[in-house]
Amino acid sequence: MKASDKALETVPARKGKAAYVKAGEAITIINTHGTQVVDTWCFMTDNLAEFMSMEHQRSVTQSVFPAIGVPLYSNYRRPLLTLEKDTSPGRHDTILAACDIYRYQMLGCKDYHDNCTDNLAAAMTKIGLIVPETPSPLNLWMNIPFTLDGATDFCPPLSKPGDYVCLRAHHDVVVVMSTCPQDMVPINGEEMIVREVHYYVE
User: Fold this and answer.
1) Where are the domains of the chain?
2) What is the pLDDT of residue 1?
């Protein structure tokens, strides 16, 4: 059965959504329009202080990119999820922090701007949980190339409409997704339009 045959849940543009994923289940996240970055977090259901950690991930795997078949590790250095499928070119960011109000102020925004940090907190609150902190997320489809001297850039995703990732849970976890509201640099495509994505758990 294809992803298009599933009953899909929506993460609205500029917003966040939390989903319970039990041990052995998988969550499939679909880049419906192909240009949307999705900040993604994972917390242990019975201990929110243990969460998917990009710092520990890079240390354990010795890579800045997640790879098919390789676990995504927690701050306790335990596998929480494994990337089972990825139909995109595989360029996902593990370096940058989630955007927040301070990031948009630095970019010149004078008024409140939707942001992934607030989306995480709101999504968790909606299911009755309080996030203990904002870990650096796995930024799905975020294309941040870098040079040997360490310089980085903000580039449009390399994904195409309908590309998806499938993440298999090792434990009972909460996965939180935020359709990144960044519309001041082209990480969500050259047009800088924020769009919805879809997902399902099975």
Assistant:
1) 3-201
2) 38
